[in-house]
Amino acid sequence: MPNPDKTSHDHPPLKTDETHSTRSSSGNSVSIVLVIVALVAGGGWWMYSHKASLAKSASPLARGEIPPVPVVEGAVARKDVSVFIEGLGTVQAFNSVTIHSRVDGQLQKVAFVEGQDIHVGDVLAQIDPDPYRAQVEQAAAKKGQDEAQLANARLDLKRYSDLLANESVTEQVYDTQKSLVNQLEATVKADQAAIESAKVQLAYTTIVSPIDGRAGVRLVDLGNIVHANDLNGIVLINQLKPISVVFTLPQQAMEKIQGQTAESGSALTVIAIGQDNATVLGEGQVAVIDNQIDTTTGTIKLKATFPNADLRLWPGQFVTARLLLTVRKDSAVVPASVIQRGPEGAFAFVIKEDQTVEMRPVKVGQIEKGEALVEEGLKPGERVVVDGQYKLQKGSRIRKSDSPAGGARPSKSNESAEKDGGQGKPKP
Questions:
Q1: Contact by Cβ (8 Å): 77, 386
Q2: Tens of pLDDT along 395-413?
Q3: Which domains does the chain have, with CATH numbers?
């Protein structure tokens, strides 16, 4: 028979332990969940903070933004600009003479040195004068002979005149004698002319310079026989002071040249530039404008005279002739590298107040010595991009730099802008 005391004693403790175990298990689960939630929240917060930190420290390029482009800035200047019209020219001697012998004979003497400065009247060469001196003497002797006959005929005429008065001779005899005297007088005059001609031929044996200039290379050597009809001559003499430059300009320039000449009332100035397109060789004035336009090329020829005191201009030399047309006062001027060229023509990058750029069309009058004369599109004082344009486009942000970063290619001045309507280099 069961013991009621034992039964009542054993069962209650078992119920208490079971309840305590259930409560402990539930509490642990809640703690684990809270820990997991805390870890997830902490991890999420860490990842968000890390991403924000990375985004904050990332470069504009990493954030998908275009960084400012480093460029060299400049300002549109105001200055007086000389406007030129340019053409290709050739230097020519002011006077050029090929010295020929005017008589035939042996060249006995060469009195000049190649490259020597020659003056008018200087003796250049001597032809053997003996044959021509003999001709002078022969003509003089012939004149003496005829003069003797004339004297005798005059005496006879006087006798016949006395006899005619006494009717001792007929009038016919007297007239015949008078005709003889007239004939001999004419012969004496012819003899005198022959003497003068022989003296001229004798004088031709001494060859003198007709102009001031410089002797060239000798074309014939001492001892040779020279002739009046020789093609080569003895030497070429060119006058170098002053000297001439003949150049051509497009026919479209005629109206401007004529208008400026009429306005100034004086000859226009021409500057001769060397083949390096920089060295000034001389300054002269327009002497002649040709009286017709070349129909094959559509150009007009002009001739300018230069003092050439320093002999920097030489016959046959090619030069660039710059005709000074006018001087424009208070014009807008920028470095030549500012001018760019695009599909729609010349333009410049103008810097706005918000440090962005705009592509502004411009009209360039000329590019001279690294400076561009801007007729339309820019005003003095405006800021423009001088270098670093190849990375720019409309609306690009820029930052000032003395030398563009990133290996920016330097802009080159386009010297042909004056010829093609003022367009600079193309924009890549």
A1: no
A2: 888 888 876 544 444 444 4
A3: 69-81+330-426 (2.40.420.20), 86-93+239-328 (2.40.30.170), 101-126+206-238 (2.40.50.100), 129-204 (1.10.287.470)
